[in-house]
Amino acid sequence: MIKLFCVPTGGTPSTAFYKWMGGLNSDISLELLEYPARGMRSKEDALDTIEELADDLYSKCKEKISSCEYMLLSSCIGTIVEYEIYRRIVKNQDRPPKKLFVFSADSPTGESYRESQYISDKNREVLCSTCESLFHSKIFNNPKKFSKDYVNKIIELNQSSDTFIQPVMEEIFISEEQSFEKKMAVDFTNKTLMMLSDDWKMAKKYSDENKEKLDIECPLTVVYGKNDRLLQKNRVENWKNFAKGPYEFIETEGGHNLTIENVEFCTRLMNAQSISSKHK
Which residues share a beta bridge with 32? Predict the structure, then answer.
């Protein structure tokens, strides 16, 4: 049995990995590490820094990693937390992971963390596409038009704000009549973008602090989606500068949210690692 510890990706709770359960081999135990104030830990107080998150999640998995083979995985902003968990594992001379998996992420010292990836004119198209997938056609008459109205208001409110500002319902229901279902969809999207905004704020603070570089000695696999419109390939490839041990770069079909949108590929990759571990 090998444990797969998953750190939440940007703007999501750990339950986003639930879809993986049906595709993983029986000898892989999915271990979900949850941030305080989200998902399964929604009643706890939120933390304000990457370091606090890493300390918290490390404390949750420390006992388990001492007695089993395991892997660490995350995507997007969550990979910085994953990297800092690895730092604590090395510092405390704990059992090292069999492998680190990094999906759709700039390196810990990357410039993208100093940018506002979503709340900006630059990524308006990407944000519209993301919202359109949340504003389902079974509920909305014209998801594309409504997404555009919503995103325009989000960007207008948040271009120069340090904290996420939610739009007033009446200001975005321009092309659609209001209903309970539509309001619920908007509320869910607001909460998702609020979490993402909080994550980026922590990532920017972390990036500005210029942390001491730690080489990754265990095997490192970095995955990039060919259609990722948020990150350029060369930024994701910067992880190779952190690899002191075996390094693998995989380019596959899909966009930025590979761990959510390309579950079959992700679980196949985990299963292949599980099988290879048995033969070593």
Answer: 6
Which residues have a Cβ under 8 Å from the Cβ of 16 and sit 6 or more positions away? 8, 9, 259, 260
The closest alpha carbon to 124, from 257, 229, 233, 195, belongs to: 229
DSSP-derived secondary structure for the chain: -EEEEE---TT--GGGGGGGGGGS-TTEEEEE---TTSGGGTTSPPP-SHHHHHHHHHHHHHHHHTTSEEEEEEETTHHHHHHHHHHHHHHTTPPPPSEEEEES---TT-GGGGS-SSSSGGGHHHHHHHHHHHS-TTT-S-HHHHHHHHHHHHHHHHTT-SS--PPPHHHHTTSS---HHHHHHHHHHHHHHHHHHHHHHHHHHHHHT-PPP--B-S-EEEEEETT-SSS-HHHHGGGGGGBSS-EEEEEESS-S-HHHH-HHHHHHHHHHHHHHHHT-
Give the CA-trace dihedral at 202, 8, 218, 113, to 10 degrees: -30
Determine the Cα–Cα distance for residues 213 and 210; give it in Å rounded to an integer. Answer: 9
* Predicted confidence pLDDT, tens digits, the chain (280 residues): 899 999 998 888 898 999 999 999 999 999 999 999 998 899 999 999 999 999 999 999 999 998 899 999 999 999 999 999 999 999 999 999 999 999 999 999 887 777 665 555 567 777 888 888 889 899 999 999 999 899 888 888 887 777 788 888 888 898 889 999 999 999 999 988 888 888 888 998 888 787 889 999 999 999 999 998 888 899 999 999 999 999 999 999 998 889 988 999 999 999 998 766 554 5
Q: What backbone phi and psi angles, to 5 degrees, belong to 213? A: -70, 135
